[in-house]
Design goal:
Layout lengths: L5 E7 L6 H11 L16 E7 L2 E7 L7 H9 L3 E7 L6 H12 L4 E6 L8 H12 L3 E3 L1 E4 L7 E4 L4 E6 L2 E6 L2 H19 L3 H10 L4 H14 L3 E5 L8 H11 L3 H4 L2 E4 L4 E4 L8 E10 L3 E10 L2 E2 L2 E5 L4 E5 L3 E4 L2 E4 L2 E2 L4 E5 L9 E3 L17 E7 L2 H17 L4 E4 L6 E5 L2 H15 L3 E4 L6 E4 L3 E10 L6 E11 L6 E5 L11 H12 L12 E9 L7 H18 L2 E15 L3 H10 L3 E8 L2 E9 L6 H9 L4 E11 L2 H16 L1
Parallel strand pairs: 1-3, 1-4, 4-5, 5-11, 6-11, 31-32
Antiparallel strand pairs: 2-3, 7-8, 8-9, 9-10, 12-13, 14-15, 14-23, 15-22, 16-21, 17-18, 17-23, 19-20, 24-26, 24-27, 25-26, 28-33, 29-30, 30-32, 33-35, 33-36, 34-35
GO molecular function: GTP binding; GTPase activity; translation elongation factor activity
InterPro entries: EF-G-like_DII (IPR053905), EFG_II (IPR041095), EFG_III (IPR009022), EFG_III/V (IPR035647), EFG_IV (IPR047872), EFG_V (IPR035649), EFG_V-like (IPR000640), P-loop_NTPase (IPR027417)
Keywords: Elongation factor, GTP-binding, Nucleotide-binding, Protein biosynthesis
Length: 671
């Protein structure tokens, strides 16, 4: 079933709000039995489907932890509706703020489900006020709890003024107790007023008659939902089945069908095009997730935007420029897959074993060749060095990391050419640790995490004139002879290396000049202080001596190597450290603490810019002071701070700190 007979939604919320338990209860009420629904935090999104009121629902359970925000954002891209799951016993946390922002960025309408109202200290009013303050969301209750805390029995449907009371895995609809009628009617009036504002005709009628029919109320509320002006609120306690049936009804009544969501903007070879979610149109599918299953291989999770897919066929991937053949089109029920005969717009499907398609790609009819851009994903904020434990692990780690990267586009893998370390970058400490756990559990690769080595540099502060070095070696037969004369100068920071030859006469044949430059470059690879590369120097090769028999490229390379080393001792060598450029976005109230922390890290603030209730701080700080900055900023801001970092330039390390770095490097060499 497609068109108006289908709903596709994503469950969003902070960790511990009860999203996975809500999925379990929804499936149970719909008569679906699913194995493998685990308790505890969700760290990887899963798709499900069920039947409700003759409709087909596709839903995605997403991680609440912002270590996995990339996964959540991509799943939100595949949905038409977001259900925000709030915890009535806990304040709204930054995790919910971030996932709600992702939904709003994509223009998704939202419903709210306030969970855990059966628990001690649960408070619906406080939760709604917190949502209003932190999310700036207009919440409109369409259901209300029947009882409080452990005495919670069910929920009141404010449209019908009836009580929904669960019993034996079913829900009974009963008449309201007399003592709650007045309260329910007052809440219903508030709901009707919001419904009237959804449409001019309804508002005019309501102002004249002070009454709307139930179908008119639903029509007005739905207009408000689709426009993003309101977010209807359902309430309950999922572990006791309370309120979940009313939420499922609300999805049917107020959630958009694929055609009600409207057009999807796509990129084409000529510019842009609007994709209509019609089953008669050519097929278009977005890929929102990839899994590498040890047994089934690559699984590509897609959302059908338009067209009708059959159980096998071919689709064009315009990003990769290839035609992908598929068979065994399936739908997911958590970790279980079942084959289907066809899929219509709005369906969440799984393609087994596509050859090159990746997360974020668009598949379409070959004649269309379109791409629907995925949402911008969060940038990595923390980096570790990954050290395989054994030679076997070292051999296997490359392919295993590539598979992890296929599954997780927010994971960044690189190799530092200088330190020869494998670097793994992610959205947080947990993100990195869970990735390393996958390496071990899924691919049998054991590796240790360490802070990455800092790529220090060495340079000089003053010039050295007329530095001379003679290389002479006689071992019987042909010997080695070369003499070079250098002037050495410091260059401005970031200039690198300059080699200048100003020879006069024929003391040194010009064919030896490349060997001299090569010898200097080799000497620059390890500086005199701590063995780091030497940068920002200029060499003037102005004179030397040669022997018509014993001189060679090797002799001049050796002479140049030692002449440069000798010159460095006279040039006041110093240690340089990489300085990073930071853009930090934080709430206004913690800006002072964040600036103080930057200063404590030997950083400097370059400027500030207001962004609503938040401040954007632009700063610079040494890389060595930022290795754990993601964790520290999270602690300083209660998780509400974000930052981006990139390399800026090199600066001289203060002498006390430089001495520690030098001593550590020398100890490492000696050991």
């Amino acid at each position: 079933m497609g068109g108006k007979g289908l709903r596709t939604f994503v469950l969003l919320g902070q960790s511990g709000a009860g999203k996975t338990e809500l999925v379990k209860t929804m499936l149970s009420l719909a008569g679906e039995e699913v194995n493998g629904l685990k308790e505890g935090p969700t760290i990887s999104a899963k798709a499900y489907h069920l039947k409700w009121q003759n409709l087909t629902y596709y839903l995605i359970d997403t991680p609440g932890d912002d270590n996995f925000l990339g996964d959540t954002k991509l799943c939100t891209w595949a949905a038409d509706l977001a259900i925000l799951v709030a915890d009535a016993t806990s304040p709204v946390k930054v995790q919910l703020e971030k996932v709600y922002a992702a939904a709003k960025e994509l223009g998704l309408p939202t419903l709210i489900f306030v969970n855990k109202l059966d628990q001690e200290k649960a408070n619906l009013e406080d939760t709604l006020c917190d949502l209003q303050e932190k999310l700036e969301i207009c919440s409109v209750p369409i259901a209300y709890p029947l009882g409080e805390e452990k005495n919670l029995k069910g929920v009141i449907d404010l449209l019908k003024l009836k009580a929904y009371i669960p019993k034996d895995k079913k829900v009974r609809v009963e008449k309201l107790p007399e003592d709650l009628v007045a309260l329910a009617e007052g809440l219903r009036k508030n709901m009707v007023e919001f419904a009237a504002e959804g449409e001019d005709e309804l508002l005019e009628k309501y102002l004249e008659e002070e009454h709307l029919e139930p179908e008119e109320i639903m029509r007005g509320l739905k207009k408000g939902v689709l426009s993003g002006k309101i977010s209807p609120v359902c309430v309950g306690a999922v572990t006791r089945l309370i309120g979940v049936a009313r939420l499922l009804d609300a999805v049917a009544e107020l959630g958009p069908s694929p055609d009600e969501r409207g057009l999807w903007l796509a990129e084409t070879q000529e510019g842009t095009a609007d994709i209509e979610p019609r089953s008669e149109a050519p097929p278009v599918v977005i890929i929102y997730k990839t899994l590498i299953d040890p047994y089934a291989g690559r699984l590509s999770f897609g959302r059908v935007i338009s067209g009708k897919l059959s159980k096998e066929g071919s689709l064009y991937n315009s990003q990769k420029g290839i035609l992908e053949k598929y068979a065994h089109l399936s739908v997911a029920q958590g970790e279980e897959l079942s084959e289907i005969g066809e899929a219509l717009p709005g369906a969440l499907v799984v393609f087994p074993k596509l050859s090159e398609t990746q997360t974020g790609d668009t598949l379409s009819d070959e004649a269309l060749k379109v791409r629907i851009p995925p949402p911008e994903l969060p940038h990595p904020v923390i980096t570790y060095a990954l050290h395989p434990e054994t030679r076997t692990d070292e051999d296997k780690i490359g392919p295993a990391l590539n598979k992890l990267k296929e599954e997780d586009p927010t994971l960044r893998i690189s190799r530092d050419d200088e330190t020869r370390e494998i670097l793994i970058s992610g959205l947080g400490q947990i993100h990195i640790e869970k990735s390393v756990d996958k390496l071990r559990e899924r691919y049998g690769v054991k590796a240790q995490l360490d802070l990455p080595k800092i790529p220090y540099r060495e340079t000089i502060k003053k010039p050295a004139q007329a530095v001379i070095y003679r290389h002479k070696k006689q071992t019987g037969g042909r010997g080695q002879f070369a003499e070079v004369h250098f002037h050495v100068f410091p260059l401005p920071r970031g200039e690198g290396f300059e080699f200048m030859e100003t020879l006069t006469g024929m003391n040194v044949p010009r064919n030896f000049v490349p060997a001299v430059e090569k010898g200097v470059r080799e000497a620059m690879e390890k500086g005199p202080l701590a063995g780091y590369p030497v940068v920002d120097v200029k060499i003037q090769f102005y004179d030397g001596k040669s022997h018509e028999v014993d001189s060679s490229d090797m002799a001049f390379k050796i002479a140049a190597f030692h002449c440069f080393k000798k010159a460095l001792e006279q040039c006041q060598p110093v240690l340089l450290e990489p300085v990073m450029e930071l853009e930090i976005e934080v709430p206004e109230e913690v800006m002072g603490d964040v600036i103080g922390d930057i200063n404590a890290r030997r950083g400097r603030v370059l400027g500030m810019e207001a962004k609503g209730k938040r401040q954007l701080i632009k700063a610079q700080a040494p890389m060595g002071e930022l290795l754990r900055y993601a964790l520290d900023l999270n602690s300083l801001t209660g998780g509400r701070g974000t930052f981006r970092v990139r390399f800026s330039h090199y600066e001289e390390v203060p002498p006390p700190i430089a001495q520690k770095v030098i001593e550590k490097a020398r100890s490492a060499r000696e050991s």
